[in-house]
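hey so i finaly got around to running the thing on Ubiquitin-related modifier 1 homolog from Rhynchospora pubera. pasting the sequence first so u can double check i didnt mess up the copy paste, my clipboard has been acting weird all day
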Amino acid sequence: MHLTLEFGGGLELLLKDSVKLHQVDVKPKSGEDTVTMRDLLSWVKGNLIKERPEMFIKGDSVRPGVLVLINDCDWELCGNLDAELEEKDVVVFISTLHGG
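ok and heres what it spat out for the 3d tokens, dont ask me to read them lol
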């Protein structure tokens, strides 16, 4: 499944090459037809995060303070971890936490 992932608010610094925009292909789990946000977060942790995954992931979800949008819609309105993604969806992760 081809997806566009965008990272902002400093989250891009945790990724390989510190790039904000990523065009990725995520395959459904064996025996599954769909990719959920839970699957995507696991994929991101294993394939894009280069350091300090605890700044992005807490348990099997994003850490508090990370805003997640699926096609410009808050993921809480889409089903959170169980939200099913579709081909060419755009998923944005923005950290709202800043040091001071």
